[in-house]
């Protein structure tokens, strides 16, 4: 069962995503901010990370940078979740090492396709 780490400061978003992903058979672990998420990425061995961009403490940009700089976590695919669709953001995030970009409100069918595609690609490469 693939493990997904959700790094999201909004409790309602964490709850909705975790419930829906668990119903789909994923093992889900939760982090409430960027610092906690970076630490959990090292200890929880997720297969994929869903990362909110706008968080207090350590935002998604900085958390992604830290994860991609570390040999222990640089291989982890990150799907960014953001409420702010800014022109050029997707390209900048892909350049930063993110696997995908998804705007809120989350379109669950689309997000599931993105997740499955990334996980299938990882299995193929292994």
Automatic annotation (TrEMBL):
InterPro entries per record: CheY-like_superfamily (IPR011006), Sig_transdc_resp-reg_receiver (IPR001789)
Keyword Repeat: no
One Pfam family, short name: Response_reg
Domain Response regulatory: 3-119
Chain positions with 4-aspartylphosphate modification: 52
Any GO BP: phosphorelay signal transduction system
Superkingdom field: Bacteria
PROSITE patterns the UniProt entry points to: RESPONSE_REGULATORY (PS50110)
SMART domains the UniProt entry points to: REC
Keyword tags: Phosphoprotein, Two-component regulatory system
Organism field: Alienimonas californiensis
Transmembrane feature ranges: none
Name under which the protein is recorded: Polar-differentiation response regulator DivK
